[in-house]
Amino acid sequence: MAGSEPQTDPGKWDDLTVRMASSAAMVAVGAVAVVLGGVWFQILVIFAVAVMIWEIWMMIAPDLPTPGMILAALTASVLSGMLTHESAFILLLFLVVPIVGAYMVKHERLYFFCFAFGVQVAGWGLLTFRADYGFTWILWLISVVVATDVFGYLVGRVVGGPKFWPKVSPKKTWSGTAGGWAAAGVVGVVFAMLTNAGFIIVALSVVLSFASQLGDIMESAFKRRMRVKDSSTLIPGHGGLFDRFDALLGASLFMLLIASAFNVPGVNF
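Structure for Phosphatidate cytidylyltransferase, as requested:
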């Protein structure tokens, strides 16, 4: 913004090497699963969702790890079982883990219920997009989220300026937020040119970018309430899986809503 000076502190880049290395490893594993699809993508998503349920529990009740592991195993069992059924009533199984976990935990029950439910539904959305709409849609979804995160991070660090929502996420700036939108728009332009989606996908990419940022902010607010820095320490430079995939979950929930409300066509190169 006019009148603001770029941040020049060299220390702000200290975590970039570790962050990029972890990102590269996750991208490699994720890319293989996305390309292969089928059971490989299902295994990755179910594993990630189960771990995030465990992380949600551990942020609320860090002194009780065993129930968290039981809930993670229950999550994997429920989602795996849902893949073998097509009845609409099977969706009620999304409530099993949130209800059981809310009963078991001694405090913050509403938070556990809401976040556990949302993570499961978002994970199911990713499985649905890959299976029903194919590789191109899921590639676009992930590309928008990654572009938003990477360019939002870089622009925010270089340009700096006013904070987006300092009480919830003190590191996020308006410049980084706008940088993420711009990068998502570019991704949309690329997919509009290479696929039969049409240029409406450019606007949808920007809105999806904002949805991914909201997912990140919601998780930041939850961590602030729980007074923790990261959801866990599983990934060097990133914290936990929930820290890494919060934006993807927000985007998935948004696209699941769009796909449910409108007749979303297939998109192909």
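Residues 14-261 form one domain.
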